[in-house]
Amino acid sequence: MGAGLRHTPDAMTSLLKRELLFVTGKGGVGKTTLAAGLGLLAAGRGLRTIVVELGDQGRLPALFGLTGRDPGVETLLRERLWSISIDPDRALLEWLQQLGGRVSGRLLASSGTFQYFAAAAPGAKELVSMVKIWELTQRERWQRRAGGYDLVVIDAPSTGHALGLLHSPQTFGAIARVGPIAGQSQRVRELLQDPTRSGYLAVALPTDMAVTETLELQDGLQQGLGRALDAVVLNALLPSRFTTAELDQIAQLNGTEVGRSAWAAARAVHDRARFQHNQLARLRRRRFEVLGVPFLFGAELDLPAVQRIVEHLQRRL
Fold it and tell me: At a CB cut-off of 8 Å and minimum separation 6, what does 41 contact?
């Protein structure tokens, strides 16, 4: 099975050396946080980096204190770090202009005919986004004044939608077998399949459902692209605070009301951490390269919290 593949010991350290890094997992597990952290880490190491959001998101500029940024525009967040929220209409227009259909592209974007294009074949809308992602990895960009990037980090949608996105070049290429669209689909697929150019990182919480979805993601990558996850980040992992001996010592205080409360609290923390570390062991039994990121206590996740995660990541990446 796919998850049984063993990665090389430097699988984690090599992730930032790829052209493209795809970050996905179950919804709500912290993908945007990890994508932002990876972007900060790469930029801090001198790599010209862009973090890509899909759809009308704009969460990254807001995280860095920037407002009023338009979708589809590459926004400088800080030195050597940019973000972009891919707008499919704009991306389609750029692609059609590159193919030579400038007039048709303008009409398509302004009339809303894009929806007809998106419905014309399975995977068409996803393919437009993937073509834009591919373009961001190129040294020679479609817009001549646009700079190239050393690393493109994708803050991908949740697992099912992410797999649909990744499979779109194959899905659409099976329909458009010849011509420039077929050729572009093949170039995107080559990028996604090449382990020296692209990497895949799953983010999961230490819960049964999130870990199960990570295993499903691994299977989907293998079936669709012949690829395996390079690594799994287990987010919000609680530390094991008490040994069995320490719990026994706390249990001896059970004769008092304070002692009973202390034992109950310690036991609850211990059981929750043990359950989470069992999920970590579950992944490692399937021979995944796993990086645990500790739980951060706070009312909301802000840039300083992301930077603390970066400090943790840089020990492994």
Answer: 16, 310, 313, 314, 317
- Any idea which residue has 């809308």 for tokens? 125
State the Cα–Cα distance between residues 118 and 129, nearest whole angstrom: 11
Strands 20-25 and 198-204, how do they pair? Answer: parallel
| Buried-exposed string 266-277: b where 16+ CB fall within 10 A, e elsewhere | beebbeebeebb
Using only C-alpha atoms, the chain has a radius of gyration, in whole angstroms, of: 22
The class of domain 12-240+289-313 in CATH terms is alpha beta
Q: What is the pTM of this model?
A: 0.85
Contact by Cβ (8 Å): 211, 218:
no
Query: pLDDT tens, 58-98?
Result: 889 988 988 877 778 899 999 999 999 998 878 888 887 78
Determine contact, residues 162/156, Cβ cutoff 8 Å.
Answer: yes
Concatenate the DSSP letters of all residues of 35-87 into one string.
Answer: HHHHHHHHHHTT--EEEEEESS--HHHHHTT---PPTT--EEEETTEEEEEE-
Cα–Cα distance for residue pair 182/306, rounded to 1 Å: 40
Phi-psi region of 204 (alpha: psi -120 to 50; beta: other; left: phi over 0): beta
